Amino acid sequence: MVYLVVILHIVVSLFLIGVVLLQQGKSADLAGAFGGQGSQTAFGPRGAANVLTKLTTYSAIIFMLTSIGLTIMLSRTSADHSVLSGTKTTQSSPAKK
User: Fold this and answer.
1) Which residues, including other chains, have CB under 8 Å from residue 39's CB and lie 6 or more apart?
2) Which whole-number Å values give the CA distances from 41 to 27, 30, 31, in the listed order?
3) Can you give the chain as a three-state secondary structure string?
4) Distances from the Cα of 9 to the Cαs of 17, 39, 59, 68, in angstroms?
5) Phi and psi of 75, rounded to 5°?
6) Which of 45, 59, 65, 73 could form a disulfide with 16 if both were Cys (CB 3.0 to 4.6 A apart)?
7) What is the chain's Cα-based Rg?
8) For residue 15, which of 69, 75, 61, 83 has the smallest C-alpha distance?
9) CA dihedral angle for residue 14, residue 56, residue 58, residue 70, rounded to 10 degrees
């Protein structure tokens, strides 16, 4: 089950990267390069969401759910998953003055 979720997580993360890179920014024109917003205002009406926006939203939701699911599944196992589990601890004595 964990392997299936890991594979799904990797596929969704690569898909999310691709979809985000394909999107055009809101201020992609020449006025946006110099700080002007043109007809787009901060609290103005928003256009309808296109297909890329919806795909980004859905893939981000799936990415978050698989991240939380992997965290829960790996925390329930009895094996030690710490990065520092294989290192030796050394105790140093305080320096004498």
Assistant:
1) none
2) 11, 16, 13
3) CHHHHHHHHHHHHHHHHHHHHHCCCCCCCHHHHCCCCCCCCCCCCCCCCCHHHHHHHHHHHHHHHHHHHHHHHHHCCCCCCCCCCCCCCCCCCCCCC
4) 12, 39, 10, 11
5) -75, -20
6) 59
7) 23
8) 61
9) 40
What does the pLDDT look like over 28-61, one tens digit per residue?
Answer: 555 555 655 555 555 545 555 688 889 999 999 9
Residue whose pair of structure tokens reads 């978050």 in the numeric block: 64
Domain boundaries, the chain: 1-21+50-76
**Residue type at 73 in one-letter notation:** M
Which of 67, 79, 81 lies closest to 6 in space, CA to CA?
67
Give pTM, 2 decimals: 0.61
